Structure formats: structure tokens, C-alpha cells
Amino acid sequence: MPTPSDTKAAELIRRRDRVVCPGVGRLSDLTAASADGATLTDADGREYIDFAGGIGVMNIGHNDPAVVAAINDQASRLVHTGIHVATYEPYVALCERLVELLPHHEPGTSDSTKAMLVNTGAEAVENSIKIARQATGRAAVICFTGAFHGRTLLAATLTSKVGYKAGCGPFMPEVYRLPFPVVRRGQDEAPVVARELARLRAALKNTVAPRDLAAIIVEPVQGEGGFHVLPGAYAKGLRDICDEHGITLIFDEVQTGFGRTGKWGAFEHLGVRPDLSPWAKSMGGGLPISAVVGKASVMDRVTPGTLGGTYGGNPVACAAALATIGRMEELGLNAKATRDGRTIRARFESIANRVPAITDVRGLGAMLAIEFSVGGDPDRPDGPGVAAIIATCRDKGLLVIPAGVDSNAIRVLAPLVIDDATLARGLDILEAAILQHAAPKPAAPAPAHATQGA
């Protein structure tokens, strides 16, 4: 057997280290040579069950045949022209599908929904803020602790975790951060919502005036922040406050969208329609494409030429997205995510009931995380413990990744096409790794007492 240093995977990592900027982070030494469905194969031919899904990109699964065929067909006809130069069918057709699936306007009103396309989640976030600023004539933005909105300068300003921002400042002005309304396992939601809405209303008096506030941006389920779910009552409170003061409400659906939570958008669970929302990740079936969807009454108030970019809404990526959405409908992936979510949550709750180090199980649909803390104290996050569990999973053929500001949660973003047997096998590996590293060790037997007089 070759030693680890002799493998093709190890050589690929060495090549990477020689030429790739270290600022492009690396969670592990895992490599990928090919993939299918919910399985990755590394450079040495070893297979892994994929619970990462390309960080939430592969809801449709790797190499879906219909998506690959759509890519090949479009590439044979038109690869690029630029939407600013010439209008092409895939761009318009995708926007038509998006406004159909994700209506932001209220039914029965004269308003409608519009969309625009770019390449990445961060670009979609930036364009959302640009639209909000133009529509309101204001500059300030409120965001939240634990948020992740991207790594470009404005998106990084909105992002909470300092590790993603180290040495990148100064950041954009007029951005204000409030605590995300975190509700933990077994906790009553109502007092948390009341406290945090009161904090927001106070901030509009002592931190930033509503007349200066263009937007409030929040994730319906935090991604990198650890899968904390926005309470529906808080979302409704945000909607009321935004309506009262003419503030644009933005829900960042980059990671939550396209079936991950059991619906096309997580906002559907909340019973609240945002004014704008950025989308990306699983929309393109693996190709880079993103969108901003919003009320026409907001979107139509921007100056022509201020949005988009050379590659935004590339024809091949649009074709992939259209095929991806079609396959998601055909396969019923929203319902599948709901079923998988029940399975994953039940397993996580079962493990949590046996492992005191697990301090939370949370998420929505098939977007679920399990959190670890030292001694079961939520104020002592156990990032190193999670790293050990993840390493053991990788050794056993399961790819999982961390989440949370302290990287002390394990998140599941498995492709929604995963079959029941593969999902169960992955959960078995994860459970065994958790029990190996985090379960309380059995007490050592008490020493036998010496016989008196011996």
C-alpha cells in the first residue's frame, strides 16, 4: 500500500500549495476527481458520501444527466455575448421562472416581481444593497451577528465572522450590526423575539435613524453562522418595522434556496415576503450563477447600467439553472428535503439525548446542524472537538463540514437526491465518530478495598 505522501491526492495538494494563494482557505486535504449523485471520488479513487454538497450548491446532486445535457446543448450554440450587448433566450427564460417560483409582490396588488442575474452569492448580495440604496435614496444597512453574506468588500462588511475579514479593512461605512434572535433547543421563542424586536426599535433611536436606513438584511437560516433559524414572529416584526419606515427588507436566500429547507425559498416558511432577496448556490446545478429577485416597485427604481456585469447570467449557466429547476420539480425535491430533514433531525436528537456535549440541534428542512460545547456549556464552544469528529468521518468515507462562528457545529448539506440507504450509512458514520470523540467515557471501576489485616 502506498504511504499517504505517495498518493495522487497528496501530490495534488502539494501542487496546490506551490501555486494557489493561501488566502483561498482549505478545510481538509480531500481531493475530488469525479462525482455522481451524493458521492465524491478522490484523486486516488476513494469514494466519499457527500454531506457537504459543495457548500450547499449540489441540491440536485452531482452530474445530473439532464443538467449536463442542457450545458452541452447550450455550449454548442451560444457560450457568451453579455446581456448588456444582446438579449438572449436563456436569460429571459430563467428570470421568467424565478419570478414565477418566487413571487415577492403581494397578491391582488398592482405590483409584480422582477429579477436580474449575476454570478455569485456575494454579487447578488451587493446588487441587493445597491438596489435598496437607489430605491430609498438612503445609505445605511442593518445586518446581524453570525451572518455570512460573502467575501467581497461590501459583503464582507455585512459578514460577521472575523476570520473571513482579517486584514481586509477598512470596511464599508453605514453598516450596523444587531444580535441575531437565536432560539436554542427547548427555549421559548416568544421572549427572545420580544427582546430582539425591542432592541431593533431602540437601535432606530440611538444608533441609526430610520430616515437614513436603506435596508435590513438577514438570512432566514444562517449558513456559516451555524444554521440558526429566524423565528417567524421576528420576521413578521421586521416586516412591520420596514413597512412603517419605508425600509427595504432583504432575505439572503443564497444557501437556503431551491429546496434545501423543503420549499423553493425559506421565506415561505416564515409567512413573510421580503422586498428583495439574493439567490445562488443550488440554483445553477453546479455552475456559477446567482440572482436578485424583488418587487418590481423596488427593482424599477434603479438607474440603467448600475447593475449586472460582463458575465452575469451567462447563457450556459442559465441553461443549467433552467434544467436544474426542471429536474427539482420532476424529482419532487422539496418534499424529499422535508422527508430527509425528519430523518436527520430524529437521528441528531437521538444522539443529543445520549451525548451531553451536544448543546443544540437546529435547522429547517434538510438544512440541519448539531452543535458541540465543552462540558455541555453553550458558552464554551468546542471547535477542536468538532474538527476531530470531522476528521474521523473523512477517514471513514464521509465528507462533512463545520459551521458556526466558533466552528463548533456540524452541518448537513447532502444532495437532496441522496437515497435512503446512503443517507443512513452517512449518519451511521457520523454517529460513530460523535460517540468516539464526544460521548462521556465510562467511569473506571472503583479499586477493590484491601482485606483488613492483610
Quick summary of this structure?
This protein has helices at 8-19, 53-56, 65-75, 89-101, 121-136, 153-158, 189-206, 232-245, 267-270, 296-299, 315-331, 333-352, 383-395, 420-437; strands at residues 34-36, 39-41, 47-50, 113-118, 140-144, 175-178, 213-218, 248-251, 276-279, 290-295, 358-364, 367-372, 398-399, 401-403, 409-412.
3D architecture notes:
By secondary structure, this protein is α/β, with parallel strands linked by helices. It has 14 helices and 15 strands. The strands form four sheets. The chain has a four-stranded mixed sheet with strand order 1-2-3-13. It has a four-stranded parallel sheet with strand order 6-5-7-8. Strands 11-12-15-14 form a four-stranded antiparallel sheet, covered by helices on one side. Strand 7 (213-218), helix 8 (232-245) and strand 8 form a beta-alpha-beta unit. Helix 12 (333-352) packs parallel to helix 14 (420-437). The longest helix has 20 residues, at 333-352. It is globular, with a radius of gyration of 23 Å.
Strand content: 5-15%
SSE string: HEEEHHHEHEHEHEHEHEEHHHEEHEEEH
> Which superfamily, in CATH terms, is the homologous superfamily of the largest domain?
Type I PLP-dependent aspartate aminotransferase-like (Major domain)
Oligomer: single chain
Shape: globular
Largest sheet: 4 strands, mixed
According to CATH, what is the class of the largest domain? Answer: Alpha Beta
Evaluate the radius of gyration: 23 Å
Poorly predicted residue ranges = 450-454
Mean pLDDT: 95
How many distinct beta strands?
Answer: 15
CATH architecture of the largest domain, by name, is 3-Layer(aba) Sandwich
Number of domains: 2
- SS element count, helices: 14
Helix content: 25-40%
Strand order of the largest sheet: 1-2-3-13
Q: Provide the CATH topology of the largest domain.
A: Aspartate Aminotransferase, domain 2
Question: Termini separation (Å)?
Answer: 56 Å
Instruction: Specify the structural class.
Output: alpha/beta
